[in-house]
């Protein structure tokens, strides 16, 4: 007989069912997973050797937990996955506001029902997916919201005095009895509200307006906080921090590979987009590198952090930019080009908090600079480092340098006054035709990547131009509808018919 088919308290007792606290439940089920080497948290990348072991130790110790970390570090996601460590079903008394355990009722309603009906008391079963409560801490949250208050309307309708437990209206925390309860952004909770949590965390009971009521709650508390909040908006009061047994520090992905896995897992790319648009590993790495550059940039507020949502949104925008271009040009298949990455700028500007110098620079310019730095960093992973070649050139071995420098024919082509315009709306064929105009560009790619097909070679050719511009060997300027490559000196001296369009944006080369 399956337990959750039992309908009465008598049947439950006869089955031999034993109640246990939520923390004991989680500890028991976690130990089972560890013994059988089953994963505790699925889809959490980069925490295998850091955060997850800390969480497992805290849960085995039956601790309440505070996740402390910057935004976009999967804090709430881990809390929500803890429900998978609960028993699949637990018995409750129907009609109870606080999920009373039939074998150990604590509310006045449940105790009275059990006393009246005895073994005939009806029971129902609560699935683990329903045993999760969450509240975002905001300054307007009140004690009544979280814990409860006296309901004078209920007292009047039922003709009860205020000494009767039935006049109480329970808040979200008592209603989360026998559940996991999460308070997000804890420092945003007013200090006087945080104080109201003391008794719940230490003694496990609630106090409502001095009402003589002891209500031992069975809750696993998980709190999340951003270190920024300690100085900008509020703080966690010291006695409350003292009552939260385990504080666990989270972090961003530490390698590009981890970041790639997260974005690939979380990005919402439609099936028809996947059929139409191909995304190379090069483009994926460039997008991830933008976040790494932002986290190390002096123009970005490090206290605020750079969420993993930046690269997820950027990846989605990059695919959509290529999709839009392909549809306009009536193409049945395309790829994300480097020039399509202009479409990820809105994903960057909205997700980085700038310091004063960054605000002076402007969000758009900062985003373009971050993309340029990402190109510069990744370029040397695919092609010879221009800085190394430049140092060798300065040694005086000019004749040898002409042989060894693969970029010299490309740079010479621009030095002769030639320039190249790549429109953001060009079809794949038009982009390839434009790139093949540059002397020596295809030779650079073919020498290092002889197995690349035409589309792959085209992307790498475009990447070479952006990489040379990022290393200040040629000039690159971004317009609203196109990117222009020219010789560096001519551009600096305003030679060669520089565009005077009002829509030009100066970009760090």
Structure notes:
The chain is an alpha/beta fold and about 500 residues long. Helix content is about 45%, strand content about 10%. A 5-stranded parallel sheet has the order 4-7-8-1-9, with helices on one face. Strand 13 and strand 14 form a beta hairpin. It is elongated and about 95 Å long. It starts with 8 loop residues before the first helix and ends in a 17-residue tail after the last helix. The model is unreliable at about 495-509 (pLDDT under 50).
Mean pLDDT: 88
Q: How far from one another are the termini?
A: 72 Å
Cα shape: elongated
- Which structural class is indicated by helix and strand composition? alpha/beta
The description of the largest β-sheet is:
5 strands, parallel
| DSSP strand content | 5-15%
* Helical percentage: 40-55%
As residue ranges, the low-confidence spans are 495-509
Number of strands: 14
Number of helix segments?
Answer: 25
Biggest sheet: strand arrangement: 4-7-8-1-9
Radius of gyration from the CA trace? Answer: 31 Å
Spell out the key features of this protein.
509 residues, alpha/beta, five-stranded parallel β-sheet, three-stranded antiparallel β-sheet, disordered C terminus
Secondary-structure blueprint of this entry?
Elements (H helix, E strand, L loop, with lengths): L8 H6 L7 H14 L15 H10 L4 E4 L6 H7 L7 E4 L15 H10 L6 E4 L4 E5 L6 H4 L1 E3 L1 H7 L9 E3 L9 E5 L6 H5 L2 H5 L17 E6 L3 H4 L5 H6 L2 E4 L6 H11 L4 H6 E2 L2 H16 L12 H20 L5 E2 L9 H5 L6 H6 L1 H20 L3 H8 L4 H7 L3 H8 L4 E4 L4 H8 L5 H8 L5 H17 L4 E4 L3 E5 L1 H5 L17
Parallel strand pairs: 1-8, 1-9, 4-7, 7-8, 10-11
Antiparallel strand pairs: 2-3, 5-6, 12-14, 13-14
Helix pairs in contact: 12-14, 12-15, 14-15, 14-18, 18-24, 22-24, 23-24
